[in-house]
Inverse folding.
C-alpha cells in the first residue's frame, strides 16, 4: 500500500486528506458497538485516506482510480448510521460526499427539489420551507444525516405514517456506479419502463454505487396541524385502533403508541405508569384535519381509549430528537440500543411479547420496552429499546450482541421483519439470509458481482460474509 497514497494525491490532488484528525473522524459511523470499542481502547483503525469529493466528477474519478488500484472504498455521508455500515481499515479509502452540498433546483409548479447528496437533512428542509414547502421526511437524525444517506439506508422519518418513507419521496436520483459511470433516472411521477432502478440504490448502503444527487417530490406546508393523545391499558389495546385508522384510510403523519414503561418515562407528568400512550398529530387542509381528528378520536374511544392532555404532543415535538449520546451511557456502564422491526397486524402482538420476554432473560438487563411509530394498512413497526448494566465492563460487548441476537431471533420466529428503517450494516448482516432467504442473498450477490466484480465498494457491510 506504500505507493497507493502518493498515487491518489498525484491524480486527485487537494481533495485527498490524510491528516490524523480527518482520518479519525471517518473511522466508523455512530454504531453503539463501535463507540464501545473506542471507549475500551480497541478502536476501529484509521483509513488510508479520505477523499472529500466536491462533485459527481470527483466521485467518478475516484472510483475509476480505485478500481485500477484494487483499493476498497467506503462511501461516507453524515456518519449518523447506527448499524455499523462504516468500519474503516488501513487498506481502504473513505469517500466523503459532504462536499456535494446544496440545492440544485426547485420547481414550485411540479413540487420538486433536487439536492446534491451531501446536503444535510435539516438544511434541505429549511431551504424548501422558505418557499412554503416541505420534504416531509423527519428522521430523528435529520440534523446529522445527509439526503444521500437517507437513500442509501432506505430511511423512514417520524411523519411516515402520513407522508411515507424515503421511497415515496424520491422522484429521481443520480449515482456513480463502481466503474465510475453515472446513472441518472428520469424525473417522472411514475414509469413502467422495466424494474425501477432507483430501488437498486435505495437500501444498498454504499455497496452498489455512490448517490450524488436526489430529487424529491415535495408537498406544501400544511395549513393546519393539531395533535391529540389517548391512553390505553396496554400496548396491545392501543394497536387495534391504529389498525382501524389505517384500514379506514385516515393518515395522521404521526401515530406513536408507547408501551406503559415508555409512556411513563416520556410522559409521566400526564400518563399513569400502567397506561400506554397513543400520540397523534394531524396535518393538512383545516377541513381535513377537523374531520380526521373527530374520526380518529371516535375510533380510539370505541377501543376503550381515554383522552389525555394534548400538551403531550407539544412536549414530544419539542424533545423528540433529544437523546443522550452512546458515549455518555457507555461511560456510566450501560449497554443501550434500539432495534426497529416490523410485522403484519396479526403477528405484531406476538413479536412484542416474544422480544420483550427474551430480552428480559438477559441476566444484566435493566429495561426492555417498545413503541410503534410507523404504521401501514397491513401492519406496523415496533421500536425496541434495551438497557443492560453488566457487572463486569469487559462483558459489555458480549451483552450487547446477546441482546441483539435475542431480539432478532424472536422477531424472525414470530414472522416479523428484522429491519424497518435503519438498514443492515454489520449488526444485522449475519441474519440477512433468514430475512430474505438464501435465494435473496444470491440475487444480491449476483447484482454486486455484475456492478462491482472486485467487491471494492463498502466491503463487509450489508451482505453476509461467505
Amino acid at each position: 500500500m506504500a505507493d497507493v497514497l502518493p498515487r491518489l494525491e498525484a491524480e486527485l490532488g487537494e481533495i485527498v486528506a490524510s491528516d490524523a484528525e480527518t482520518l479519525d473522524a471517518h473511522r466508523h459511523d455512530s454504531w453503539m458497538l463501535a463507540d464501545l470499542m473506542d471507549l475500551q481502547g480497541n478502536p476501529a483503525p484509521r483509513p488510508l485516506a479520505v477523499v472529500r469529493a466536491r462533485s459527481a466528477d470527483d466521485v467518478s474519478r475516484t472510483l475509476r482510480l480505485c478500481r485500477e488500484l484494487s483499493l476498497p472504498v467506503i462511501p461516507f455521508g453524515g456518519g449518523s448510521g447506527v448499524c455499523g455500515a462504516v468500519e474503516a481499515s488501513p487498506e481502504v479509502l473513505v469517500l466523503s460526499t459532504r462536499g456535494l452540498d446544496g440545492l440544485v433546483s426547485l420547481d414550485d409548479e411540479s413540487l420538486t427539489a433536487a439536492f446534491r447528496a451531501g446536503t444535510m437533512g435539516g438544511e434541505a428542509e429549511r431551504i424548501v420551507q422558505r418557499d412554503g414547502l416541505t420534504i416531509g421526511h423527519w428522521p430523528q437524525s435529520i440534523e446529522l444525516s445527509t439526503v444521500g444517506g437517507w437513500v442509501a439506508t432506505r430511511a423512514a422519518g417520524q411523519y411516515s405514517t402520513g407522508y411515507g418513507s424515503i421511497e415515496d419521496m424520491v422522484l429521481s436520483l443520480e449515482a456513480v456506479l463502481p466503474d465510475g459511470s453515472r446513472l441518472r433516472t428520469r424525473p417522472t411521477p411514475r414509469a413502467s419502463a422495466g424494474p425501477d432502478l432507483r430501488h437498486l440504490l435505495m437500501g444498498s448502503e454504499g455497496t452498489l454505487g455512490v448517490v450524488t444527487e436526489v430529487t424529491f417530490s415535495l408537498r406544501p406546508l400544511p395549513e393546519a396541524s393539531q395533535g391529540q393523545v389517548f391512553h390505553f391499558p396496554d400496548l396491545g389495546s392501543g394497536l387495534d385502533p391504529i389498525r382501524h385508522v389505517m384500514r379506514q384510510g385516515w393518515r395522521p403523519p404521526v401515530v406513536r403508541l408507547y408501551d406503559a414503561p415508555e409512556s411513563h418515562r416520556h410522559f409521566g407528568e400526564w400518563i399513569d405508569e400502567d397506561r400506554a400512550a397513543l400520540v397523534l398529530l394531524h396535518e393538512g387542509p383545516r377541513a381535513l384535519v377537523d374531520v380526521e381528528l373527530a374520526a380518529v378520536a371516535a375510533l380510539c374511544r370505541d377501543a376503550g381509549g381515554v383522552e389525555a392532555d394534548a400538551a403531550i404532543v407539544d412536549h414530544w415535538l419539542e424533545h423528540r430528537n433529544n437523546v443522550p449520546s452512546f458515549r455518555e451511557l457507555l461511560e456510566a456502564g450501560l449497554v443501550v440500543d434500539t432495534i426497529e422491526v416490523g410485522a403484519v397486524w396479526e403477528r405484531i402482538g406476538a413479536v412484542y411479547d416474544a422480544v420483550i420476554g427474551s430480552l428480559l432473560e438477559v441476566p444484566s438487563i435493566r429495561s426492555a420496552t417498545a413503541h410503534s411509530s410507523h404504521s401501514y394498512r397491513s401492519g406496523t413497526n415496533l421500536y425496541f429499546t434495551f438497557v443492560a448494566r453488566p457487572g463486569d465492563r469487559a462483558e459489555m460487548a458480549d451483552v450487547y450482541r446477546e441482546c441483539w441476537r435475542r431480539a432478532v431471533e424472536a422477531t424472525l420466529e414470530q414472522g416479523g421483519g428484522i429491519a424497518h428503517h435503519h438498514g443492515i450494516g454489520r449488526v444485522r448482516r449475519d441474519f440477512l439470509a433468514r430475512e430474505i432467504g438464501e435465494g435473496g442473498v444470491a440475487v444480491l450477490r449476483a447484482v454486486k458481482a455484475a456492478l462491482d466484480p472486485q467487491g471494492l465498494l463498502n466491503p463487509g457491510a450489508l451482505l453476509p460474509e461467505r
In short: The CA atoms of residues 338 and 385 lie 4 Å apart. The first helix runs from residue 4 to 12. The mean pLDDT is 97. The two ends are 25 Å apart (CA to CA).
